[in-house]
Amino acid sequence: MGDTGYSHSFPAIRGLQAGRVFYIAMCPMKIIPKIFIFDEEEVPPELRAQRALNRARIPEIASYLIDNPDSYILSALTASVDASIQFKPYAESGPASNMGVLSIPMDATILINDGQHRRAAIEEAIRENPSIGQDNIPVLFFIDNGLVRSQQMFADLNKYAVRPSYSLSTLYDHRDPGSDLARYLANYCIAFKGITEMEKSTISNRSSKLFTLSGIKHASRALLRKGNREKISEQEKHVAQEYWDAVAEHIPDWTRARERAVVTSDLRQNFVHAHGVALHALGIVGADLLASDPKSWKKTLQKLSKIDWSRSNIQAWEGRAMVHGRISKASTNVLLTANLIKKHLGLKLKPEEAELEKGLSK
């Protein structure tokens, strides 16, 4: 029970990994900030058992919980307990012998090995919406075997954690309006239908795809001047579809790729328009074009067919879409690529865009 004689009790399941007993318990979220400690002291990394807390991540996770109280999902926390714990099984034998009540002394130190940002976000979300505190989150409890073991646990837990590609996240994210727009365009826009890589954010040389879903998302948000998670109306979806289809009319290689009349790897090797930097730049150009010329913007787009998109056109693309002959998707390169397209279309550069041009000429 510990010195206080009191304990936290949780319904739990007992398991075994690598010869060590661990427990999975369901914990009410309201007690998470009270009993789970994250060591935030300013100590050297070699004396800590987890990474420093990145406070910039906390509001985003907290907002996710607050904005989606009926559909959010949080993965389990992992924690180490530095005290003797008690486990009372529901039965002496059989499957129920590994199910029971886990009791942890209240004076025990329960240190989070994985999930410190989720813990901090839960605390912040409960302050905004106390009803979240009634929900449960699963917790994996391990017995603390010292700093070295805790550090190894952190390394092992994170070593094989691979974030999904941005395209796959876009494909599966049904809360983000930008992702919804990208999926819509990939399925219904003539420019992108059938030649969009839906899962990966890079395209292999053997792929028959020309665009990535994440590239379409970035470019289309730029086209509609939409920020992260900003709502997109049905009318705006159709405007984006109309714009990209009009662009495709004047870049014949996009049509040839859709018709399988050209190998897409050859296009990527030889032309700037087959890369995300050009797609994003065309989105930026489109935003200005639609705003300045809402009636005859399609006629202006006809001038796209006069652009020499070949990568061998070093004079045009070096320092813009390319750096030392290699395609660059850096934000400055996207803007400089957009500047060149604007010049070809006869659009006036904004003061900040003109200033960027001066830096290129130095």
From TrEMBL:
InterPro entries given in the database record: DGQHR-contain_dom, DNA_S_mod_DndB
Domain of life: Bacteria
Any Pfam family the entry gives: DndB
Signal peptide (from-to): none
Cited NCBIfam families: DGQHR, DNA_S_dndB
Protein name: DNA sulfur modification protein DndB
